[in-house]
Design goal:
alpha/beta
Length: about 375
Amino acid sequence: MDQKIVEVNTCIVDIPTIRPHKMSVATMQHQSLVLVRIRTSGGTEGVGEATTIGGLNYGPESPESIKTNIDTYFAPLILGQPIASPLALRGRINKAIKGNYFAKSAIETAVCDAYAKVLGVPLAALFGGAVRSHIPVAWTLASGDTQTDIREAEHMLHSRRHNVFKLKVGLRSPKDDIRHIASIRQALGADVSIRIDVNQGWSETQARSNLQALADAGVELIEQPVHEKNIDGLQRLTALGILPIMADESLKGPEDGFVLAAKRCADVFAIKIEQAGGLYAAKDLIAIAQAADVALYGGTMLEGSVSTLAAAHLFSTIEDLEWGTELFGPLLLKDDILAEPLDYSDFSLKLPEGPGLGLTLDEDKIRFYTRK
């Protein structure tokens, strides 16, 4: 139990996507995963991951900066430290390093993975234990073409992989987006759940003017319609009560969550372990939402399998996950770095068995996709 961290390694893994993924902030053709691997004095390995969307299009961290900062600043801080004290390590890192939430999340995931393996328990046990073995998963439609999105959704329904769909909008005019949404809703039928994500793409005026039309088109939830800094605008849109409003980019950790909850700026919080600053910060954010009666949704940074599983372990401990999750990131990639792919079936993701994250890496795939 007194094992110490003796090695920290990072690499950037570039994997193509199955199709262009179009959002208001970027169009993705591939995803870059920063893989973090730590080793303890007892020979236990822990694995973590950090991803961003479109390099620096989404936020202040890029794959390149994450790797450099972990190698230069994080590794010296945690080398020689005991693996059995993840919260003490978190405090040590937060005292020395400001921001860098994505890098912190990758390090924390690797530490928790290793510690859970030493204990011989699933990672979820570090956060109170799982209350569910299957996590409901939505699919995002983001090809940019209405008919392509309809065919994609119909395939997901037929294969029983997804029956909840989130549409990426905000690149076109709101009126064109509403026509796009209404066509998809009509094609898929009333039993399918349709949500939209604007990724801050609209002004408050645009959002307010189109909320009722979006509701009439069959939208059930709207994510981050306005700029992340416009929390008063989020508050005003939420107060209208026309559609549930979900905060995403406005949530950069528990402090943001406290402000948004206190001012009632959202009906739903999109919880992302990387955007929150790690698993423990995300757990704190979940507690704030629960105390304020804000509904919960498990978000994604379009992560690969490692970070997706870390989030799934945390989300498995939430008793009331009202809006489900969108942990579909690995399915957007043409290939995986796991020896055994994740089990997506019956509209959900099944948590793997075994200690820690419960995964085994495919070393050949990692070598093939690692950026030289």
